[in-house]
Amino acid sequence: MSTTTASDANRKAPAGERVADWADGRLGIYSLAKANMRKIFPDHWSFMLGEICLYSFLIIILTGVYLTLFFHPSMNEIEYHGSYVPMHGIRMTEAYASTLDISFDVRGGLLIRQIHHWAAVVFLAGMFVHMMRVFFTGAFRKPREINWLFGFLLFVLGMFTGFTGYSLPDDLLSGTGVRFTQGAILSMPIVGTYISMFLFGGEFPGHDIIARFYSIHILLLPGIMLGLVVAHLILVFYHKHTQFPGPGRTNKNVVGMPLLPVYMAKAGGFFFLVFGVIAVISALFTINPIWTMGPYRPDQVSTGAQPDWYMGFAEGLVRVMPGWEINLWGHTLVLGVLIPLVVFGVMLAAIALYPFIESWITGDKREHHLLDRPRNAPTRTALGVAWVTAYMIMLVGGGNDIFATHFHLSINSITWFVRIFFFLGPVIAFIVTKRICLGLQRRDKDKVLHGRESGIIKRLPHGEFVEIHEPLSQAQLHALTAHEQYTPAEIGPSVDENGVERKPSRTEKLRAKLSKGYYGEGNQIPKASVEEYKEITSGHGHH
Amino acid sequence: MSSQEISKESLPSEQDTAHGTAVAENPFADPGLPPHRPRIQDIDERAAKRSERTVALLFTLSMLATIGFIASFVIFPVDKIVYVWPLGHVSATNLSLGLTLGLALFCIGAGAVHWARTLMSDEEVADDRHAIEATPDVKAKVMADFADGARESAIGRRPLIRNTMFGALAMVPLSGVVLLRELGPLPEKKLFHTGWAKGKQLINMNTNEPLRPEDVAVGSLTFAKPQGLEEDDHDFSNKIAKDALMIVRIQPEDIKDKRELEWSHEGIVAFSKICTHVGCPISLYEQQTHHVLCPCHQSTFDLSDGARVIFGPAGHPLPQLRIGVNDKGFLEALGDFDEPVGPAFWERG
Amino acid sequence: MKKLSARRRHPLAAVVVLLLALAATGGLYAAFAPAGKAQADETAQSLAIEEGKKLYTVGCASCHGTGGQGTTDGPSLVGVGSAAVDFQVGTGRMPAQQPGAQVPEKKVIYSQAEIDQLAAYIASLGAGPITPTEKQYSPDGADIARGGDLFRTNCAQCHNFTGAGGALTHGKYAPPLNDVSPKHIYEAMQTGPQNMPSFPDTTMPEQEKKDIIAYIRTVNDDRTATPGGFALGGVGPVSEGLFGWIFGLGSLIAVAVWVAAHTAKAKKS
Prior knowledge:
The structure holds three protein chains of three kinds. By secondary structure, chain A is mostly helical. Chain A has helices at 6-9, 15-27, 29-36, 49-68, 94-104, 109-136, 145-167, 172-186, 192-200, 209-239, 259-284, 309-320, 335-362, 378-398, 400-406, 411-450, 474-481, 506-519, 530-540, and strands at 40-41, 77-79, 91-93, 253-258, 326-328, 331-333, 452-459, 465-470. In chain A, strand 5 and strand 6 form a beta hairpin. Chain A is globular and about 90 Å long. Chain B is an alpha+beta fold. Chain B folds into three domains: 40-118; 137-168, no CATH class; 191-348, Rieske Iron-sulfur Protein, CATH 2.102.10.10. Helix content of chain B is 33%, strand content 15%. In chain B, the strands form four sheets. A five-stranded antiparallel β-sheet of chain B has the order 4-5-6-7-12. In chain B, helix 2 packs antiparallel against helix 3 (92-118). The two termini of chain B are 45 Å apart. Among the domains of chain C are: 52-125, Orthogonal Bundle (Cytochrome Bc1 Complex, Chain D, domain 2), CATH 1.10.760; 134-219, Orthogonal Bundle (Cytochrome Bc1 Complex, Chain D, domain 2). Chain C is 48% helix and 1% strand. Chain C has twelve helices and two strands. The longest helix of chain C has 24 residues, at 237-260. At the A-B interface, helix 6, helix 8, helix 9, strand 4 and helix 11 of A face helix 3, strand 3 and helix 7 of B. Chain A: The chain crosses the membrane at residues 47-71, 115-136, 148-168, 180-201, 213-238, 267-287, 333-357, 377-397, 409-432. Chain A: Residues 19-245 form the Cytochrome b/b6 N-terminal region profile domain. Chain A: Its EC number is 7.1.1.8. Chain A: One of its GO terms (biological process) is respiratory electron transport chain.
């Protein structure tokens, strides 16, 4: 390519540039880089939660590929004669035996296994917290609803990928989890037995399930997830990141540091930090010591049989459900298992669909790039906390046996506590959160109008003590008043333009009611107005 | 739901503070980005040099840690156990490989981030956002193009083509669904039967010997499988998943359920070990209360009262196996379970 | 109410709220905690009496009756055998502080000689399992792997995979096995103390008990290797999940805070 024209030959481009030229001729990388190389990312720790997820996902893929080199996804039974003495001569599947080999005979195999599993625990926890960050700051609003759904799907798929991976070693703990899955499938009306027979290739446990879970775990689900991750990231780039309100930060700009070099270094460095931390945790702390559990046998079980934490919520629902069963016309409806499965789906769907519900209530069709402080959206925040409360209470329900032994409580009492507080807890959480948000709003208003309490007490000439309030800077004033406040939607005029009477539809009425619940009197504190501010500041004689 | 009816006043007015025209009139107006203030490293070259050295040190540390990783890999045998307070007796390989790998990675990250934080420009810049929605012109052009395309394809004019195409596309995935039929057999009556049958002796899981009534003491707990089922059978797992039996002996006068007493042998009762909830092997037997608890979801059954459910999510009692004694004095089954064992399902009835 | 709300900014308000919360938590705990939990035993009896019967009359008869026939407070001891006495008294479970479904392990207050005397007296009331000799319970030469298999069939459902213990109904529990001596494990299997079912020699022969003991000693001992690092209590995914959230995600968030924080600015001169 250097043999073009004479004028070009005067100056030979450096090698890197020549490679880039070559690539640009085929891929158009310069146009891509023009748009993205100096892309701005705002700095905030909570904006890095998603990166924790992304990086732990990459770590899981890297370590997972390594594990596939040694793992045999087979249910052929063999007699173990490897290096772990307490299992000598025990009959087990090749899946379990190869997991023992990875743990005891492959140098570094145990480390990679533990990194893989710890990263999975962190991945799911990271996604949960990331999702909550997006929820409580209102980052899911237009134009990001679709990306919220992508993220939600990643969380759900992550749960099932985690579950299938947890099942692969075919140890007594994970086998019990698979048994639960089979029992839950059986409970489905009409199709349950068919799905169970097809999934397991016959009766439980059969000889196929590990191999089938294997291809689901390493191929099907991660493949979909990888696609979703890419789509998620493309949308993040395309929409540009949201930011908190502050001086110079508007809905029409994004303030921060450029991708090259600062974010390249920070985000790239953060990958190594995440990997490093997880590697150190895996060096120091055992996770899932399958050698202590023994191979799965359908007639053996251990107490303390739990799924990994992300399935604990479903486990809790199943544990605390009363044993309802309806037998009618020769058929059985297993409500005791079916209802928890439905509630599980409904709770997940509720959080997934929330952005659409809120945008319907507000009727707001504009783009939002400035984040809400949670206090400034009290009803949303309270709903979110109520949801998290229900989730956490079910986590307690899922671990009721461990909580019982470690806190010297009765398992039955914990179950009853969870049964009651699954309903009561979210209500209490909703009310309390809302009160706290409104209180914080009042405090903000107070701060704007009267300044910051300085803690300095002054005695006035006539003997009165007053605390000096420092007025806020304009930047602070702006940050505290930049949020938008909605007025509740009205049911529209009861007479249309032509003077014909019009009956408001039921959905309209519902919407107005909900809107009032969100933005009506007592559900948000009107923020300080310029007039109020001026009146107070001039009245006090400041400035 | 029509958006027209939303009174426009319910939306907050778009705050266009970027102009910042009348700060004097509006004390809440956006003052704009604060002026950039330099860091120590920006004005003091010695501080910058210190940062540079720190970053380089971190990268060097990472290199050393990688060397340490390779060294540990070579030095420690895979089964070497060392005592490290407070972790306990841990694998030397796991510990050393994990720590060195973690350090090597962490130092790269820490170096890069320290570099970015102290030596790269930290001036915040604002980038404008652009509307995502297309302008009306663009939209009009796209709609027109689409209309042209649709017209040229004649899909609207020739519904026969359209309808048969949709039909074909809807049907072709059926082939894939049909193939899934090969995943497993039909359920038929498989879930209704177990390996138990009249005359099959109860074999002690521990000793692999048939049980005699006198072996089973009051307050003891024994597990049994049907005669003829061996651990190295190809289908052992499938069989034991339904056949596993839990045997306890209760003083006959303590048995409250009439049928349970009838189906027992001198107070020896045999129940399915598989929970009727989702199929965990249930066997947390409390010999004083005769309650048995499932370790998975805490369904509790009263073995002295027909294995009635007294707590938890199970929907029906554990099936009981009718047992007796054969002429050789061994315990035997007097038939199969009279109902399916394990989790309930639609066809169970 | 007005007065109260006026004081809500008092510096001690937070402390008061915290105290109220603690009191409420304590109250809730008391309400939910199973009744009949141990209170400190202050009534350690002076043990001067030498013979089993005398020991019995003083220490045991109030619940188990003067002749060991049992009362409403305690079961009959006729036929429980010397092994049961050796277990119950040797692990400090008996004498109990109060009758109940679960009598916890506590400090042993009898000497081994006294326990033997008590055991001899109870054994004389009716035949039962005899205190095992060391040859019977010693795990030397036992098959550990076979013991593991037996443990998973017979014991793990209550005592967890390696004997970490687990919950039973209404606040009862299966205790952890890490510091239980081989003799006491053997006796427990033989006699079925409290709510534990027994595993008599007729269904679980002596050799199998030894195998089980050998397995427990191998996998649940101070010197048991935990190759992967600190075992987090060995109770499975609940502790792993908590750890992953608090220390795993927690430390990563701490790192994120550092990465995203603004670098210190030079002081204005």
